[in-house]
């Protein structure tokens, strides 16, 4: 039997456990507000949070008054998203699907892919298929906001391993390998807690800004702006991440 791809098994309790230390509700709300400002969309826009995870941005964007859908492949992440949404008392439509399978006919004002959820799929062409699916889901004047690691900066200041004390007294070990030929970054994360350990592997294909621009063109999208952050900081070789805004070529 064919082994499941890594991204179908790594986003579970382990990820949620670490995510609570990595992102605060206030920080996620600020990211969502910055992303909406960078996109420059109108009030009550229709927005898709692609690879929404536990909905930390989807719910905030719904609270700002937009009509939000959150799509993710992990049932565990969507269950967490639904629980947060019910507690927040806002409407969000949750879609359980692969990022290539955005439902047809949505005519969206905006698609967001936040944090680092692009570059997981087996082949480069699969990543291109994601961009094509986004294009197909956008209204004529719709916009994409894509946040990804900046391959140039990751390669320039590459670290192989680190060990961090987490706020609950457990430890996180991270070991990374980067293959410059394929662009794959592999990350093994291990949580050491109460004398036992739990491990997951994550992989992401890294792109630099010019590769992303080329892929956007191939998907029928046009690069509007590249920034280093959701608040629009200037992008350069030291920027860990890039935030790309793109529009649809019609
Ligand atoms: C790093 S998390 C980011 C989640 C969210 N955007 C955030 O900022 O908290 C990546 C998410 O992508 C989802 N994912 C992974 N592969 C996917 C796929 N092929 N299709 C849809 N979602 C996927 C995972 O389940 C996970 O929730």
TrEMBL record:
EC class (word): transferase
Listed transmembrane segments: none
Keywords, alphabetical: Methyltransferase, Transferase
BP term (GO), one: methylation
Keyword Methyltransferase included in the entry's annotation: yes
Coiled-coil regions, chain positions: none
Keyword Methyltransferase belongs to the record: yes
EC number(s) given by UniProt: 2.1.-.-
Methyltransferase domain sequence ranges: 47-142
GO molecular function, one term: methyltransferase activity
Signal peptide range: none
Annotated protein name in UniProt: Class I SAM-dependent methyltransferase
Species: Glycomyces tritici
UniProt lineage: Bacteria, Bacillati, Actinomycetota, Actinomycetes, Glycomycetales
């Amino acid at each position: 039997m064919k082994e499941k791809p890594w991204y179908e098994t790594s986003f579970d309790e382990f990820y949620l456990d670490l995510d609570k230390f990595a992102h605060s509700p206030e920080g996620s709300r600020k990211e969502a507000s910055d992303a909406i400002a960078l996109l420059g969309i109108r009030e009550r826009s229709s927005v898709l949070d692609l690879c929404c995870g536990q909905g930390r941005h989807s719910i905030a964007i719904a609270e700002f008054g937009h009509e939000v859908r959150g799509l993710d492949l992990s049932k565990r992440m969507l269950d967490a998203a639904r629980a947060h949404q019910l507690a927040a008392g806002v409407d969000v439509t949750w879609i359980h699907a692969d990022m290539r399978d955005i439902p047809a006919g949505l005519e969206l004002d905006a698609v967001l892919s936040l944090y680092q959820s692009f570059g997981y799929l087996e082949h480069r062409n699969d990543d291109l298929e994601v961009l094509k699916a986004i294009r197909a889901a956008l209204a004529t004047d719709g916009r994409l906001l894509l946040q990804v690691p900046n391959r140039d900066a990751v390669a320039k200041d590459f670290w192989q391993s680190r060990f961090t004390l987490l706020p609950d007294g457990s430890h996180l070990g991270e070991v990374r390998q980067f293959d410059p030929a394929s662009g794959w970054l592999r990350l093994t994360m291990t949580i050491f807690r109460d004398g036992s350990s739990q491990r997951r592997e994550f992989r992401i294909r890294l792109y630099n800004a010019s590769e992303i621009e080329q892929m956007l063109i191939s998907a029928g999208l046009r690069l509007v702006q590249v920034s280093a952050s959701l608040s629009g900081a200037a992008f350069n070789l030291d920027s860990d991440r890039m935030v790309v805004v793109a529009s649809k070529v019609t």
